[in-house]
Amino acid sequence: MFKKGNLTILFVLIFFFLKAQDYQIIFSGTGSSTNVDSVMVENITRSKRITVKGNEILHLTSISTDVIPIQENTARTLNIFPNPMVEASTIVFQAIASGVSQIEVFDCSGKIISYKQDILETGFHTFKISGLSKGVYSIRVNSLAYSYSGKLVSVCTNKSHCEISEIGYQPLPSSRVPNLKNATSEKLMKYTDGDRLIMTGMSGKFSTIITDIPTQNKTITFNFMPCADGDGNNYPVVQIGTQIWMGENLRTTKLNDGTDIPNITKDSDWGALTIPGYCWANNDEVNKSPYGGLYNWVAVNTGKLAPKGWHVPTDNEWYDLIRNLGGSSLMVCMLQETGNKHRDTDAFNSSNATNETGFSMVPGGMRIGGSAGTGVFSGFKNYGYYWSSTFDGTYPQGEAAHSRFIMNDFVNLGMLLKDGLSIRCIKD
After folding, report:
1. Sheet containing 218-224: which strands, arranged edge to edge?
2. How many CB atoms lie within 10 A of CB 19?
3. Angle at 396 between CA 391 and CA 402, to 5 degrees
4. DSSP 3-state assignment of 5?
5. Most CB atoms within 10 A, among 71, 118, 249, 255?
6. 362-373: per-residue pLDDT in tens?
7. For residue 300, which of 315, 319, 321 has the smallest C-alpha distance?
């Protein structure tokens, strides 16, 4: 029978753990690189951002926002979930060196009630613990290289034999195996179930964006791939449905064969242009990032504006993006960067943007190329225009191409070939 003090501890722990979300996220790479240098994690629900090293654990919790070092041969709390357990719980820990490891379960009197010994490889191991009757238990993992411990509360009413069994193993790439002479750490981030994270994994010149709403421990694997323009600018990539897009607006000053694109600043010259041309919004290079350049369609039509292995999307590919997002009228909000850092506070959808795709559209506006208002900039920080590579044969004198206008909808517009619009490229 429980003593009064033990019952108090049990109820406190039950309340504490039922209120908490506690997930561990580890990172890996594939494709052009298997190494993850760092990950920028943005909780767009809470407008919070942290950077995690590639060999660190992202620990999502409703309890704390601090950094906990994992020192060699130093005990630390295990990740145990669910906690309290009803029928079974899992424990997750990192074996920082290969070798013999023991997992022990003790009751509240300190008596060992279950024990498992195994040879574990370096990496993350998941074990299932079941068969515990109601009570508070201590879990301990020991090896020559590490020692972890934690408390587990059981509310199970069925008495059974406690069993420990391994149910998962996630190896670490060799470049991520920690050196025991250095401390490896986990980075904690405030999190509540339902929060959406945008995670940008970086590996050298490569970067990939993944969005997720974690509900359990997991591994996030970034598919790294080259996306470099004629200037050598490297762009993050993001998968939306079946398509892979650049995660930023194009900002090259060269075609992908190294040919310079003229930077046209004079209004009258812009309107008369019959060769490829670009400019920065309001002719100010400070707007190069994140808004990118504004390009005329002649530059698009060279077929060399996009990074090699990429292309300016056709109008059908823009339409496929709409279908990938379910064709919802809210789709435009799913594409736009949250907050007002890069747009006017009264911009369309500024308060409704969710960016749950990771597309991170920013409103670069346009530069007018027609006879009326030639060379004038319009809509900067309010809305975005994006070229397609599809010619609009229905327009008089064949002087237009299809574009996508992102404001409070995702409208297909025929824009004059001399207009200056933003560019997002899609993978071949």
Report:
1. 67-70, 184-190, 57-61, 22-31, 218-224
2. 9
3. 25
4. helix
5. 249
6. 999 999 987 666
7. 315
Residue 31 to residues 23, 57, 224, Cα–Cα distance (Å) = 26, 21, 5
**Where is average pLDDT lowest: 98-112, 135-149, 291-305, 406-420?**
406-420
Distance CA 282, CA 285 (A): 9
Q: Which residue has the tokens 């290289």?
A: 145
Structural domain spans, the chain: 4-224, 237-427
pTM here?
Answer: 0.69
Place of tokens 């001399």: 418
Residue with tokens 């509240």: 108
Q: Which two tokens stand for residue 98?
A: 């290969």
Q: Which CATH architecture has domain 4-224?
A: Sandwich (2.60)
What pLDDT shows up at residue 372? Answer: 63
Out of 183-192, 214-223, 261-270, 341-350, which region has the weakest mean confidence (pLDDT)? 341-350
Query: With contact defined as beta carbons under 8 Å apart, do 350 and 332 qualify?
Result: no
Count helices and strands (H / E) in the chain.
6, 28
DSSP state letters, 337-359: PSSSTTS-TTSTTTTT---TTS-
Predicted confidence at residue 220, as pLDDT, reads 94
Q: Is the peptide bond before 290 cis (omega within 30 degrees of 0)?
A: yes
The reported pLDDT for the residue numbered 71 is 37
Pick from 304, 289, 318: which is nearest to 409 by CA? Answer: 318
307 vs 217, higher pLDDT: 307
- Burial class from Cβ neighbours inside 10 Å (0-12, 13-18, 19+) for residue 177 reads middle
Residue with tokens 């909808």: 409
| The two three-digit tokens of residue 367, written as one number | 């530069």
Per-residue burial over 125-151, b = 16 or more CB atoms within 10 Å of its CB, e = otherwise: bebebbbbeebbbebbbbbebbbbebb
Measured CA to CA in angstroms, residue 392 lies from 296, 414, 422, 425 at distances of 15, 6, 18, 19
In the beta sheet, which residues pair with residue 361? 336
Where does residue 368 fall: left (phi above 0), alpha (psi -120 to 50 degrees), or beta otherwise?
beta
**pLDDT (0 to 100) of residue 182:** 36
d(CA 426, CA 428): 7
Buried b (16+ CB within 10 A) or exposed e, 293-322: bbbbbbbbbbebbbbeebbbbebebbbbbb
